[in-house]
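Appendix B. One record, verbatim.
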Amino acid sequence: IQTYPTKRGWGSRYATPDGKPAPVPDKVPGWNKVWIEKKERLRNAEFRAREYFRESQKWKWSPETKGPLKIPRDDPLAGFRVKDFLLQPEKPIWEKLESLYVDDEPLEEEPEQEEFDELIDSMDGNIQLGEARMSELIDDKSEISSKSLSELAGTTVTAGGGRRSKGRK
């Protein structure tokens, strides 16, 4: 099935639009001038083995079956990063589903005037209660040494709590 169109002559023979062979390009003079100069320099060097060794350290054998056999050991474009510059960046997932879950009504309604007045009254009551408790605290240290505990507490205190043992009288 795969080779049948080629056997029948239906397949394309050349990759040109008109199906004819592409013209052979003209040779560019001096296309390998730099390579030839480098090889001559290596061949004519005084310490040929050392130069060849240093040059061989720059290359490695390619693991690919197609393409060049030797490739540079250190890739000059290793730190180069391709960046996608999108005209319309992709929207986050939650924006896609936002139309399903959007709630226009607020979670809490604003308090009415009566509720607001009650809140203000309760806050004022808490402030007054706090001020009353502060006034009950002892401010002067000399008051502690001059008064008894019962006077400071404002209640009568009985020693022993009214419990007596039967053996003692």
